[in-house]
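PT: before anyone asks, these are the final sequences, not the draft ones from last week. 474 residues across everything. Please model them as a single complex and drop the result in this thread when it's through.
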Amino acid sequence: EENKKADTWLPSLVTDTPQEGFELAIKLSRMGVKSTQPNKEILFRERAEYSQDAKALIHASEVIAVHFQTVAEANDYWK
Amino acid sequence: EENKKADTWLPSLVTDTPQEGFELAIKLSRMGVKSTQPNKEILFRERAEYSQDAKALIHASEVIAVHFQTVAEANDYWK
Amino acid sequence: EENKKADTWLPSLVTDTPQEGFELAIKLSRMGVKSTQPNKEILFRERAEYSQDAKALIHASEVIAVHFQTVAEANDYWK
Amino acid sequence: EENKKADTWLPSLVTDTPQEGFELAIKLSRMGVKSTQPNKEILFRERAEYSQDAKALIHASEVIAVHFQTVAEANDYWK
Amino acid sequence: EENKKADTWLPSLVTDTPQEGFELAIKLSRMGVKSTQPNKEILFRERAEYSQDAKALIHASEVIAVHFQTVAEANDYWK
Amino acid sequence: EENKKADTWLPSLVTDTPQEGFELAIKLSRMGVKSTQPNKEILFRERAEYSQDAKALIHASEVIAVHFQTVAEANDYWK
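LR: through. Structure below.
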């Protein structure tokens, strides 16, 4: 039940503002983690761990950066 | 027999929705791992291990992000 | 209160100069870290740690590089 | 004799299908490793090692993902 | 005083040759590190350390590669 | 004398074939390492080390992949 793939969570890459695009990039990063570990308990335990680890925080920021490239391109950089 | 390359598993990069594109990106990430380690037993053992490791989960999410860039571009960002 | 997402911190990706674009890339990198660890105390403690670690410094520089690609593209490379 | 650079192994980035493009990306990843370590014995020893290491498998999948971006672009995403 | 952000160090991404573009990419990589650790003493100490570490050297080379993509695009690949 | 920046080593990103482009990507990766550690003795010692380390080999292959993207784009994918 933790992994209802049928649910729509990504209807579009279009957002109104760059900041909402950044938040979508964060969501995509987390869904990437969740797809590998759908168990919520383990997921929260691991998130608690890496959110206190400097190197893991930087790595998480990198994944967001890669997704933000995609979202920004999808929105023509909100120009 | 674990590595039947003749089987078609990637007929197209085109998907109907962004979310299906994200799922294709997950599949591409896994096929990348499988191409290096085609033995299913070892593959499942290792997946069980890294799915409980915070840093590996973030790295797996990064690979998905890189593939999602490709899939999104292939679909003109579903615009 | 440390995580007021309603606040606008990213109104646009457009900057006047490449250097301001680089500073925006730094900001995006830090907001990526902050989104994973919104607690300022832990954030500052971890930043103090990784800012003295050679490998973490290089990784932080990489995240900036990825964001700088996005910002540069958004500004048509300030040509 | 392990490093005959004169041999043609990459005549083109064009492939008939996305799946063949993925296989080319795998080949490019391996040639990148081989270029740094042309000695086949060491190469096979190391490949045996990292193919059983969860984190190395994910990293190998990332290199394939980066190359697949290039190959997909070269083929106009097989559209 | 080590961090005078008002100083102009990046007036343009345009360079005369690919090689000067590569040198600009090196500069951008270092400025990314410096932005996280502006203290010159610590910076030089850490640079001394990672410049003797094989894995850190490869990672530093990766950051340069990402910036070189941006600089090359800004210069239309010096075609 | 190990770091004669005045020497021209990158006159162009254009190559005749994809394979020569791949070799240029390898050269760019190495020049990135060399720019951080210009001392040849240390450079060769470290290269000897990482060329026998599975994870470093994969990372080196990744840097080549990023540069190959740039070189391929510069050559319009040799189409």
